[in-house]
Specification:
The complex is a heterotrimer. Chain A is α+β, with helices and mostly antiparallel strands. Chain A is about 20% helix and about 20% strand. The chains are: A alpha+beta, B alpha+beta, C alpha/beta. The interface between B and C is large, with 47 and 59 residues.
Chain lengths: ~575, ~170, ~450
């Protein structure tokens, strides 16, 4: 995150001047420059608690002459600084002009060593069995700022261990440092005040009201923000040490909110999904239901083969048969709002080459006003942008089905949808020539003449357009099953064969060169220019479309009427 | 919730006096505890509804403040101050003596259900140390020498016919 | 010449025939100050309090007029006055006498102060253990309301204020002003971080709030009665008025004595008022102001500056009873509850007693106090039960140093100061005791209980 250019003031930290936004929290301000003030309880998205006392630093302000109200200047030209008699917590300090901070004095070192020692005296020796190891703030700060040895020889406090706080969250009270981040999160972000501290003093214990659980759909965020291993994910428990995991940036496909995610994998297997920071979309949160979606990658229903007439075959044969069917005319298309923008673009090129009616299916979601919207697909707007859609899709495809029944349409190119669920009878399904591109088997793929394997969002690279008309990129985390290829390659090859144009564009960057040239709102863009926080496009062309989403965090449908290009 | 009409009336009169309902928390809990002898789970949830807060907010408070208890105690609540001024004048000896005389362990309820003996922290009567509170009354100058007589007095007052302690 | 009390606040405490009812209070001139003051401008009353130099009597000794001046008047939010009647500092019992024996003085002081700061509503937060006091105060308020001294349109002035008596439930930390505010809001008594939650700006319900001790509010009545400048003449410069000294511990006549600030010494308090130590014993140590203040060892000498600037040296008994004098001796007057310990006292056990208190009362919000207080308790308990090590002596002091000044509220200092003063000043006792314990552990045959000398304190 770079320093915003407006309203800067000068503060001095350890003898050096820094320009920071006025009023900004000191911890956040120093992070802009890569300077760390160690802290536990402070979190930029929650109210300030100030209880861990790890962020104690020395602060001072220039002293003013009582009579003249002028700043006193020392003989060497520097301002005379009145340092506070006690260290102050940085988390309640806002940057004001002239603020002086010292973080490298003996006093601050003593404070940090002291707090570290206090935090560790009742802490259990759980590192070998604690999931937090490797990303634990106690470990990190003990190494960086701790004394390195313990003086505690008394009996440690005993508290409940490994209790199920909720269906997805495990609580180990002995590890808890009582920072109250989880309590504040449930109170302030989710508005479900189910967590709290009972008892008093060093016996204070985090718990849920007896009989209730931490079961809201954002409970796993408490695991993310817990600085220690007190709150851990039951799904991830004991599965993998975090230092073996590689994170890759992705986008949650649960809904059109387009929550930014981090997907962690090792050797081709995904172990967990966590939120990725994006202050314009999801802050640093995501839903529990969104995290589960990675489990669809390893499913017995995965389509990891090419097939013609129910027989697995080489890609070449399947593509050839599909080309044949498409060239046969009377084609209808069913696109998917699960597809990436690049895939939808290639589909549009295909439609232009071999024309036919295009349908999408509306998948309504249950918006919760937070990070799940009323649209359960990540990229409906991509379909509008590419021109595949002019109006909102319905939940049925009756029009298209009638055309198939009447014989006006003989071949259907179906992406990711199940015709059986859309009212196609078994009989009709058998009679129709279907080319199916998708990730998981269903009745449609069972009956399809040609089956082309698709990849999940975790196995390919591309972009989605979310409810804010923000284009956001996702990157491949794990390779797809052996023998498969990203959808854009499959579609690209199909397009090449159908159009006779042999040149294909197998990478997102290359497709973007075409996208930018064809679609006016993307004029001047590039794949790189989207950045890692996404980029909003000019959506004035679709201002009249009554999209179904209501309010979410960082999204108000009423404000969309004046969307500017990013 | 089997609160007496008097208690319910008291709480209903009390709530509107406070600018915010949650403020009345301690007073409501005191009233319920005096009525029922302790604060049950039902009482906690009743209070939560009455004050329009989540039950966790009430539960947090009940476990924080030592005067609130979640289980019944003996008929007579004997509280011996253990902080410095009283300790300097023999509070620990007084407590031992009372435990012996009343047949009750420290922090426990006696087998006959008549007494509960606890240490408490300074009750702000240091000039007449050692002090002992029994139910809601303060008893001053209960020295180790006087402790056996004091215990006898408590026992005499606590005949089985006396209604259960309500404090 | 023996010093005598100057009973201003305590004029009628224990007076034969003085009863709690309004009629008695009025016979003795009660509510006359209110009658006159409520016709004056509130700002004038605040100025009187500023002129008086009155310092708060709750332990921190902050100038009351200055505190009132911090109130945020710009936001337009209602102002609240809270009387801190949560007297819980061990060794202190002065407010109890006022509440139980002269409640109307407190009521009048509360209404006067509420009027001066233009409070919308006043609370008296009384500790839960004072069952009787609660009833007495409620009764007194009802009497006052019936006579138009509390409630609507007081004495026809147009000013209205009600007083709600609110009971605590057994927490020392509710005596901390922001802890009290949280408790009054119906929550766990977690003190607030300052900045930004200064009560005068963001107090009760995030509105400007003043929290004053019981005795302070009573002192306000007398300030307004005689005028601020006259009040300032009582006592000494920098500490005007009287202090109510409650003495306890090893003295012949424990009790409460109202003494003009600076006009008597510790010696006077011990001998003239307290009747001296128990027969056959000598005083070894005193804690001047409630147990949170640093302990003084008899035999210590302090190099000080007298009010005229000249240097002097005081023994403990020489210290005048005013805040500046105690400050010069490295401790504090605090709540003026002096505890005397004689030569039979095991100083290690005394500290263990206090550490157990602070560990029990720590609210648990911030790391140093929460963990440090319990750790200190465990160490001193271990030493008292015979398991002491020589390194524990420095360890205790070191842990206390890690707590003081690093916490959200002053409970950190309260945890630390007894350790930081007891251990260095009585090091010989600690070393002797622990050495004996080590010896007993190494020679388990026939060794007597070397854990404790004197009375059991923990």
């Amino acid at each position: 995150m770079s320093v915003p250019a407006t309203n800067l003031v000068t503060i001095n930290v350890d003898g050096r001047d820094y320009q920071v936004p006025v009023g900004m929290n000191l911890i956040d301000a120093l992070e802009l420059f890569g300077l760390e003030i160690p802290h536990y309880c402070y979190h930029p998205k929650l109210t300030v608690a100030g209880n861990c006392r790890m962020c104690l630093v020395e602060t001072g302000m220039p002293m003013k002459d009582r009579q003249t109200n002028q700043i006193i200047i020392e003989p060497d030209g520097r301002m005379k600084i009145g340092w506070g008699p006690k260290p102050a917590v940085a988390c309640t300090t806002n940057c004001t002009p002239g603020l002086h901070v010292r973080t490298n004095t003996q006093v601050v070192k003593d404070c940090r060593e002291g707090v570290m020692e206090f935090l560790l005296i009742n802490h259990p020796l759980d590192c070998p069995i604690c999931d937090q190891a490797g990303e634990c703030k106690l470990q990190e700060f003990a190494t960086d700022y701790g004394r390195g040895y313990s003086r505690f020889v008394e009996e440690k406090n005993v508290k409940p261990k490994r209790t199920l706080l909720g269906p997805r969250v495990m609580l180990d009270d002995e590890r808890c440092i009582l920072c109250s981040r989880c309590v504040r999160f449930c109170d302030e972000i989710v508005k479900d005040p189910v967590l709290g501290f009972i008892d008093r003093g060093s016996y204070s214990t985090l718990t849920c009201y007896p009989g209730r659980e931490l079961d809201n759909n954002y409970s796993l965020n408490t695991v993310d923000i817990c600085p220690v291993g007190a709150l851990t994910s039951t799904d991830f428990r004991f599965k993998m040490r975090v230092w073996f995991l590689k994170p890759a940036p992705s986008i949650c496909t649960e809904s059109s909110v387009g929550v930014n995610t981090e997907v962690w994998s090792r050797e081709g297997k995904i172990y967990r999904v966590t939120p990725r920071d994006n202050n314009a979309v999801n802050d640093c949160w995501m839903s529990d239901s969104g995290r589960e979606l990675y489990k669809s990658v390893e499913s017995p229903l995965r389509i990891d083969f090419f097939a013609v007439d129910n027989g697995k075959c080489a890609a070449d044969k399947a593509l050839a048969r599909a080309t044949e069917l498409l060239k046969g005319g009377s084609v209808g298309y069913i696109g998917s709002a699960q597809s990436s923008l690049e895939e939808q673009f290639l589909l549009w090129l295909l439609v232009k080459t071999e024309a036919g009616p295009v349908s999408f299916v509306n998948h309504p979601g249950k918006g919760d006003g937070l990070l799940i919207s009323n649209d359960a697909t990540p990229n409906l707007r991509g379909a509008f942008l590419t021109g595949l859609l002019k109006e909102l899709p319905k939940t049925n495809i009756d029009d298209l089905r009638r055309k198939v029944e009447s014989g006006a349409i003989k071949t259907l190119f179906v992406v990711h949808e199940d015709l059986a669920a859309l009212g196609f009878s078994d009989d009709l399904l058998r009679r129709t020539q279907v080319i199916y591109l998708g990730t998981h088997a269903n009745l449609t793929s069972d009956y399809a003449q040609v089956v082309l394997p698709g990849l999940t969002v975790f196995e390919k690279t591309g972009s989605f357009v979310n409810q804010q008309w923000r284009v956001q990129r996702f990157f491949q985390v794990v390779p797809g099953p052996a023998g498969t290829a990203p959808d854009i390659q499959v579609l690209g090859q199909l397009l090449a064969r159908v159009s006779g144009n042999t040149s294909t564009a197998p990478t997102p960057e290359a497709i973007w060169q075409q996208l930018v040239a064809s679609l006016a709102p993307l004029s001047g863009w590039s794949w790189e220019s989207i950045g890692m926080q996404g980029r909003v496009l000019d959506a004035s062309a679709w201002v009249h479309v009554p999209f179904p989403e209501g309010k979410s965090k960082h999204f108000d449908p009423a404000a969309v009427t004046a969307v500017k290009a990013g | 919730m089997n609160l007496s009409a008097k208690t319910t009336q008291y709480i209903d009169n009390l709530l509107p006096r406070y600018p915010q309902k949650q403020s009345a928390m301690l007073m409501v809990l005191h009233a319920i505890q005096e009525d029922q002898g302790f604060l049950s789970k039902e009482a906690i949830e009743w209070t939560a509804q009455k004050l329009e807060v989540g039950p966790m907010a009430v539960y947090e408070v009940v476990t924080f403040y030592p005067m609130f208890r979640q289980a019944p105690i003996g008929r007579r609540h004997v509280k011996v101050c253990r902080t410095l001024s009283c300790a300097l004048r023999g509070a620990y000896k007084v407590c031992d003596s009372l435990q012996h005389e009343l047949g009750c362990g420290l922090g426990e309820t006696s087998a006959d259900g008549n007494y509960t003996i606890e240490f408490v922290e300074c009750v702000a009567a240091c000039g007449s140390a050692p002090v002992v509170m029994v139910d809601d009354k303060l008893h001053e100058n209960i020295t180790p020498e006087k402790a056996p007589d004091f215990a006898a007095k408590i026992k005499k007052e606590t005949t089985p016919l006396l209604p259960p302690s309500r404090h | 010449m023996p010093v005598s009390e100057r009973r201003i606040i305590y004029r009628h405490i224990d007076e034969p025939g003085y009863t709690l009812d309004l009629a008695c209070y009025q016979r003795h001139g009660g509510y006359e100050v209110l009658r006159k003051a409520i016709q004056r401008k509130p700002e004038e009353l605040v100025q009187e309090v500023k002129d008086s130099g009155l310092k708060g009597r709750g332990g921190a000794g902050f100038p009351t007029g200055v505190k009132w001046g911090f109130l945020d008047r710009k936001s337009g939010k209602p102002v609240y006055l809270i009387c801190n009647a949560d007297e819980s500092e061990p060794g202190t019992y002065k407010d109890r006498q006022i509440i139980y024996k002269d409640p109307h003085q407190l009521i009048e002081g509360t209404v006067l102060s509420a009027y001066a700061i233009q409070a919308k509503l006043a609370f008296i937060y009384i500790r839960g253990e004072m069952f009787g006091g609660f009833k007495i105060l409620e009764q007194a308020i009802e009497e006052a309301r019936a006579a138009n001294f509390v409630g609507n349109n007081i004495l026809g002035s147009g000013y209205s204020v009600d007083i709600i008596v609110h009971r605590g439930a057994g927490c020392y930390i509710c005596g901390e002003e922001t802890g009290l505010i949280e408790s009054l809001e119906g929550k766990r008594a977690y003190p607030r971080i300052k900045p930004p939650y200064f009560p005068a700006v963001l107090g009760l319900y995030q509105c400007p709030t003043i929290v004053n001790n019981v005795e302070t509010l009573c002192q306000v009545k007398h300030v307004l009665d005689m005028g601020g400048k006259e009040f300032a003449k009582i006592g000494v410069a920098g500490d005007s008025g009287t202090h109510i000294w409650g003495i306890s511990g090893h003295v012949t006549k424990p009790g409460y004595y109202e003494i003009e600030s600076g006009k008597a010494t510790v010696r006077d308090l011990l001998y003239d008022f307290g009747g001296g130590p128990p027969v056959g014993r000598t005083i070894k140590a005193i804690i001047p102001g409630g147990v949170s203040m640093k302990i003084l060892r008899m035999g210590e000498k302090f190099k000080v500056k007298l009010p005229d600037g000249s240097p002097a040296e005081w023994a403990v008994l020489d210290i005048p009873l005013d805040s500046n004098s105690f400050a010069q001796c490295g401790t504090s007057l605090g709540t003026s509850g002096m505890i005397f310990m004689d030569d039979t006292t095991d100083m290690v056990e005394a500290l263990a007693n206090l550490n157990a208190f602070y560990a029990h009362e720590s609210c648990g919000q911030c790391t140093p106090c929460r963990e440090g207080s319990l750790w200190l308790k465990k160490i001193t308990a271990r030493v008292c039960s015979g398991g002491g090590r020589m390194e524990d002596i420095d360890l205790i002091k070191n842990i206390a140093d890690q707590v003081a000044g690093r916490t959200i509220c002053a409970h950190g200092e309260a945890v630390a100061w007894p350790c930081q003063s007891n251990v260095p000043k009585f090091r010989d006792e600690w070393e002797g005791k622990i050495r004996a314990q080590i010896h007993a552990r190494e020679h388990p045959d026939g060794a007597t209980d070397h854990a404790r000398t004197g009375l059991r304190l923990v």
